[in-house]
Protein 1
Amino acid sequence: MYLRQLSIFLENRRGRFTEIAKLLGEENINMTAFTVSENSDFGILRLIVTDTDKAIEVLRRNHYAVNEADVICLHCPNQPGSLGKVMDIITKAYIFIEYMYAFSEGDSANIIIRPDNLVKCAKVLKENHLKLITSSESYKF
């Protein structure tokens, strides 16, 4: 029902993201979605990968601080108003969004959502006939 997302804490210095991209690539692990947020001292790289367990092992072996969290991935049309409709459903269900990020290609969009209540959010979205992506290992983003 959920995707496993990794959060990696990075020092704000040149090449840190490059190191991670290369490490994962060398292990044949694909990053299917990611976002980076930062402040003056550090950044947080959040990513969905094709082999979460292997990525955790590789990153920790290379001394990266890695946390795992469940997130919801919603697949929806990439057209004006689609996100507004989804957010209206979530808001009316009194669900708070901690963060989200999205990516689209052509007529489709995928939205990664970290709500305060995963179970309730997934239930509400499914009740409204919205498609949830449940595995980055089997779904081609």
Protein 2
Amino acid sequence: MKIAFADQRPDTTEVLALPVQKGGSTTGLIDGQDALLAAAASGQRFDGEAGSVVELFVPGADGTAPRRVLLLGVGAGDDAAYERAGGALTARLLTSGVTAAVADLSAAAPLAAARFAAGAAQRAWRFDEYRTKLSDKQKQTLAALTVIGNDSAWRDRAAVTDGVALARLLATLPPNILYPETFVERVLAAVDGLGLEATVLTEAEMRELGMGALLGVSQGSTRDARILALRWAGAGEGAPLTALVGKGVTFDTGGISIKPAAGMEDMKWDMGGAAAVAGAMLALAKRGAKANVIGVMGLVENMPDGNAQRPGDVVTTMSGQTVEVINTDAEGRLVLCDCLTWVQREHKPTRIVDLATLTGAMIVSLGNEYGGLFSNDDALADALLAAGRASGDQLWRFPLADAYDRLIDSPIADVKNVGPRGAGSITAAQFLQRFVDAGVAWAHLDIAGMVWADKDGPTWAKGATGYGVRVLDRFVADACEA
């Protein structure tokens, strides 16, 4: 959907949206229509709650056609409520037959107006590429939104919205279309010309580096693994480097420890962490972030052919540590551990944030409301929690402790890739922590319950949410930029 900003309401009959705060008055929103607006609000029990909508038709001036008007609740008037209102506007009009709308946010602060536009644009994202029999009523019609207001904050929010769209696309594409090699191709095409320095590692290069854990996951697939790294040098030489590392399992059968058939199709989005990193790097480059950031995506397919790794195998990681593979469906941590070692050896970041759809246990713990946060550094954890609250991609912190770490000691190797049934998300994080060098601030985000939604949300339709892009961008803006 095309977003434009303007200084005043255009003299058209396009749909007009007007924000109303919770408990606020509708008086004066449209000249001469106070009674009609008040009656519509009262009749539909509208009190301005964030995301609520009242729809009515207002008589046109001088005999012109009536104009469709929407009252949009913006709650207390904070930025997040405006974003929710933007999403509600799109949800109401997306397939309504309306092609263009105007939202009068002339009284809103610049960031609120930008968040409104971002919410509207993000809620408009759809993937219809393979749907050939949509009826007219199912097709998207809303193509343009004009926001009356200050556009000074829109450039950055537009960049983040583009990053969310890229992450959603990657998570939505079917696994016969998106696999490690084509993931790289699509991301490189998306970031072309933005000033990002790209590095791509092939299986041969990874084998030479000793990445036995990542390659062990990949060895059952006919699709070769890849590592894609995108580096953004927005703060100049010598500034601290932040690393974002994403799990990119483009399809996960579970390997020899195969998953149940029911619902296995969902495992096309087991690369949601890598998708979030790709989207975040796109956003940082598009808005010209004044920070040095490298995004690393470990890309594999986990399949159960005759060459697949077995439960009981021992693999040697790039760090030199050995891993007893107890469950081949605990593959994401095997991918991430070699990516963590590589980025630390090659690029020496001062802080690392990794993201992964890592454990089903995280969904048991938090459902689909928060991503899990684990960290060896309180300041880093606090910065990420604050970024989550501000961006809407919320996080909840979990503990790390020696008692949990001992649960993954192996009798025949340095570590095993799963612990007992209890505390499964924590022991997964403890596994990753073993590959973080001393002195490096590190955080792990388990986003298993967040990258895909079974129902519509405030700024997304059912399907891929793009979770992770917004919190990473906000974290970089608040904690990393010069």
Protein 3
Amino acid sequence: MKKYAHNEITLMQFICILSGAQMSVGLLALPQLLAQRAGTDGWIGLFIVWMINVAANLIVVQVMKKYPDGTILDLLAHYCGPWAGRTGAVILALYFFLYGYVGITRTILYIKQWLLQQTSAFKIMCLLLIPTYTIALNGFRIIGRYAELVFFISMWIPFAYLLTLKDAQWLYLLPVLKEGWLPVFNAAEATLLSFSGTGITLILYPFLLHKRQAAVGVAISNTMSMLVFLLITLICFVYFNPNEIKEYNEPVVSVLKNIEFKFIERIEVVFISFYIFMFSLSWIPTFYTFAFCTSWLLNMEDHRNSLRVLCFLLAFGTFLIMPTFNQNGIMEGWLAKFAIGVEYTAPVSLLMYIWFRKKKIKLSSEK
């Protein structure tokens, strides 16, 4: 019997969780970040990071195929010993906690800036943690259903941005590669964080109902994220002039002020409200994954206690101190470095280790 059969998810849920983790809070500031690094050529960097990320995720899938009925923690314990599994559990728990914490605190900052200026961060954190705990309480199957719901109710958002194209200045994009490839590569490096989050595949893989579809799932999820990033970035690039876009902290929100409806005065407020659903996919799956890793480390089958402790610590920590935008940006820098190690370097190293180990065993048996 499969170890995680009681919590299996479909391919659609798998894709929605992965793409949701990517298309979260990093989206709002992405066009400004690309413009600062490479001007209006920054959109080219999205293709570079997309190819790198798809390749990295396919390597993750190849690694997980070596132990299909277990997570990366089970795989490490099987091939490298219990100590490696525990070390991996600590590293992944810290990574997913930091990923989720950066996402939820950035969301609170956006809510205070655009929606609830007079509400304390502690109250907003408590309001967000209630549905977070309720959804994550029952594991990846319920998280997958929630991710599907968010996907379908958010499908209209990218297309709504097409309404801003009536004022587009396509000449802003020309000439292409004005300063060569170096700025584009710098922009690609800065974009790695926006494409991160799919490292959750290391834990999510054994929960996938048909594991042979994992490679297709990671390719589709990354492609969906890239297309949304590309669409939103290009719209911002042709709406703002090349110097103006560098001055907006959230150009993805600011561009919405150009959309007018007779029955809505501030359309950006409506969009931010819907964005919260998308943002939640940056912390609900990762907080549950944190609880999963800590429970695995402590040899506990029930993840709910770890989740309760985490929610309490988040609420209490926010009551004591709430990061500012600058402090959150510093944490994003740490997270980007952490993501390179967890989502890119570690899978490649582990795949090579398993290959050499099997090669060595094969040579020893032949002797």
Protein 4
Amino acid sequence: MKTLQFKTLIFIALIATAFSSCTKSSDIDYPTLKQVYFAENFDNTGGTALPAGWNSYAEMGTRLWSGGVYAGDGYATVTAYGSGDAANISWLISPAIDMDQHEGESLSFQTCHDKYVTSTSNSLEVYVSKDYNGNFGASHWTKISYNSTLPYPFTSSYAYVNSGEIDLSYYTGTLHFAFKYTGINPSTGAYQVDNVKIVY
């Protein structure tokens, strides 16, 4: 009987200890869901138009970025196909982003190309500028890295690749980001950009 009572007391003590050591909800660090500061999915372009605030600039050749729609899904697209130019360099420039509104901002997007992009001489790069004001020639652009892994050659349908999160937290003031397309003959396939987002 004494052994049973002793074991019972030990069990109660263990239960009490366990409950007294539980972490209170206020002490737990729950992961914070990121808030969307800027987003563009190009779904409301009205066909070939770019969304308000977006601009395209042809640094070389004649081709510009435009809107596109497939199966109800919008995107931004550009191609050198049929341009007759030896090379096309075309920029898709974002609206102005105020980087003083939040902290910890990061940029992400999706990109893809068609099967006619068969050479790495055709590319899609991403840049940022702190002094772009509509005059491309007077602005300065800095290249930023992202996950640009796309298959060569691409022999099936379009497949989007996620960029990963690009840290923009160290930028202040007004910022523009831009997608720079380079298309050089004879490989002159199309690129697409979609689901652009800045979160904090």
